[in-house]
Amino acid sequence: MKEPIYVTQPYLPPLEEFTEYLQKIWDDKRLTNNGPMHQKLENELCEYLGVPEIALFNNGTIALLTALQALRITGEVITTPYSFVATAHSLLWNGISPVFVDINPDTLNLDPKKIEAAITPHTSAIMPVHCYGNPCDVKAIQEIADNYNLKVIYDAAHAFGVQDEGGSVLRHGDLSAISFHATKVFNTFEGGAIVCPDAKTKQRINNLKNFGIVDEVTVVAPGINGKMSEVNAAFGLLQLQHIEHVLASRKEIAQLYGEYLSSVSGITVVPHSGQTVSNHAYYPILVGEEYPLTRDELYQKLKDNGIFGRRYFYPLISEFSMYRGMPSAAPENLPVASGVAEKILCLPIYPTLDHLAIEKISDIIANPHSF
Ligand code: T4K
Known about the structure:
Aspartate Aminotransferase, domain 1, PyrdxlP-dep_Trfase, Aminotransferase, transaminase activity
């Protein structure tokens, strides 16, 4: 294959469609600070996602940091080691200690059965991740939170557009933080948001993301600059016009991979669980012992053929130096996550990935010794 194929490629609508939005920004001379594009995108996203309130951010990590500040979370927070580092980093940046709990082998999300044993008098919240857009066991997690008076902040970075039988998965918990990074299903170049249940909470979040400013002479909190610019918001408005096409293309690609890979011995496609609408944000497979190559050998074999899959999420967050010494980071505490991190490989999936490429990738996986 001539052009390299990466794990993802951002969806870019035709450039001329974007220039219309840019012209409006040039005319208005409003570049940031809750401008008209920002307000419109918040309204359109609430409607599209079916959530009560949404506060836009300049990226998903600042959204997570701010969500923790908004709920005044302190002490210890229970979270998963099987995620992108931003999940646990958002805790450390707030002076909070992450407590890692193992994942469920089917969903690859925080295992509710193991949460209670990790609760201490210092625990103030649970931060689960809807990994790959597969919903967590939200009911079981909420029951534990209610019993122990804990807050729940979902890292929903992967979960744009995912629905369960009651609607958007973003409605669960006290708050959900999403990412609109270039690599995500819905992107604003860089960007993110917090989904929240009511206008009062949104007001606090709005203050926090704008330095804590209420008006020209009033600052109520040590806030941060978490604002999304008008250019990013405009791109979001345009992306939203194309989202059905993006989601449909991803679904089609996932179906094709499924057809090719379902019969390959030693390869398990990570199943969907608990959603009525998926976003196919990632295409994760597990490379088992029966497969003729190790995961890393397959990863390298694909690379040698110009296909750059990614081992999301290897290494586990708990293995990085800033977390490794924590008691909950011990691999014996995290046997499922440790095992999955050694087997996982995310295959390329994005709307413009053509069928021939999917066939070739699947062919290499099915017959690795022929390539
Ligand atoms: N929580 C979770 C669970 C997350 O997964 C993330 C982000 C966050 C929180 C934080 O949200 P943000 O603050 O990022 O909004 C990528 C992304 O940078 C990161 O957003 C994402 N998770 C993570 C899972 O993946 P890398 O280091 O793997 O990205 P990178 O630059 O290697 O990109 C992967 C491939 O995508 C490249 O090989 C080529 C392609 N690509 C990438 C970019 C940036 C493009 O074609 N165009 C591009 O502009 O982290």
